[in-house]
Automatic annotation (TrEMBL):
<dbReference type="GO" id="GO:0030288">
    <property type="term" value="C:outer membrane-bounded periplasmic space"/>
</dbReference>
<keyword id="KW-0378">Hydrolase</keyword>
<dbReference type="InterPro" id="IPR002508">
    <property type="entry name" value="MurNAc-LAA_cat"/>
</dbReference>
<dbReference type="GO" id="GO:0008745">
    <property type="term" value="F:N-acetylmuramoyl-L-alanine amidase activity"/>
</dbReference>
<dbReference type="InterPro" id="IPR050695">
    <property type="entry name" value="N-acetylmuramoyl_amidase_3"/>
</dbReference>
<dbReference type="GO" id="GO:0009253">
    <property type="term" value="P:peptidoglycan catabolic process"/>
</dbReference>
<dbReference type="Pfam" id="PF01520">
    <property type="entry name" value="Amidase_3"/>
</dbReference>
<protein>
    <submittedName>
        <fullName>N-acetylmuramoyl-L-alanine amidase</fullName>
        <ecNumber>3.5.1.28</ecNumber>
    </submittedName>
</protein>
<feature type="domain" description="MurNAc-LAA">
    <location>
        <begin position="157"/>
        <end position="266"/>
    </location>
</feature>
Length: 271
């Protein structure tokens, strides 16, 4: 038996596509560099979480993997404010499970990006007192795999309406055949409060990400049409645009997107 001292003896976990590799090598810079270079050449996504000494690898796409969501039993130390107390906010990460959404030029996948942004946004909202309802917290279909579109989207609407949420925000990545198409758009279904929410989030996202302002627009998307509360669908940026794909699939870009949507929500509630 050896006593464990010092950081150099700490074990590192490696998680590939959600499965833990059954060996725990020691934390080593060389191993990390090797894993990163393998990931780069095979177009795998890789994320090293220093707090958990864990390497997450995603062999399905080049998107940075989304670590499993841990909801800590309210840790007051991390609380930032109470200004969203009493607000229930439904966040809908677009696509998931059998529905990949759009795919970027280097193989990053919309469903990964939307979930990552949504989880960061959820965390930020909860730290500021909000109650957050997520239509999904993992890579899954909300109804069932390969369900008809209206069944899948209906399941998302039911969650928001059932929770009697104050606002509903569906997060997506835009995509177009022409790779130069770029920018941020926020859609609403015409209700004045939805338009006001859309304006707050759109302005904040364009400022935060520095993207082209494609404006706030009317659209008859299922999830914003049938939800009973002010509802918007955000196309954060274009996954089909090589530069914006990097923003959507990187930790930094996802964080900025989540932070910007959060600021938009705060402005909407005037808190
Ligand atoms: Zn989408």
């Amino acid at each position: 038996m050896t006593k464990r001292t010092g950081k150099e003896e700490e074990d590192m976990q490696i998680i590939i596509d959600g499965h833990k590799v059954p060996i725990n090598p020691r934390v080593s810079k060389d191993l990390l560099i090797t894993l990163k270079s393998i990931a780069r050449s095979l177009h795998w996504g890789i994320l090293y979480d220093t707090n958990r000494e864990t390497v997450y690898i995603n062999t399905k796409s080049a998107s940075v993997p989304v670590p499993p969501h841990e909801r800590p039993a309210s840790s007051p130390a991390e609380a930032e404010s109470n200004r969203l107390a009493g607000k229930t906010i439904c966040i809908d990460p677009g696509h998931g499970g059998s529905d990949l959404g759009a795919i970027g030029p280097t193989g990053t996948i919309e469903k990964d990006n939307t979930l990552a942004i949504a989880l960061l946004l959820c965390d930020k909202l909860e730290k500021n007192g909000a109650t957050v309802i997520m239509t999904r917290e993992t890579d899954r279909d909300v109804s069932m795999p390969d369900a008809e579109t209206e069944v899948e989207l209906g399941a998302r609407v039911d969650i928001a309406n059932g929770a009697d949420a104050d606002i509903f925000i569906s997060i997506h990545n835009d995509s177009f055949t022409n790779p130069t198409a770029a920018g941020t758009t926020t859609f609403h279904y015409g209700h004045p409060e939805s338009i006001r929410l859309a304006n707050c989030i759109q302005k904040s996202l364009v400022e935060g990400l520095g993207t082209r302002d494609r404006g706030v627009r009317f659209a008859s998307f299922f999830v914003i049409r049938y939800t009973k509360m002010p509802a918007v669908l955000v196309e954060v940026a274009f996954i089909s645009n090589p530069e914006e794909e990097v923003v959507l699939a990187s930790i930094d870009g996802r964080y900025k997107a989540a932070e910007s949507i959060f600021q938009g929500i705060v402005k909407y509630f005037k808190v």
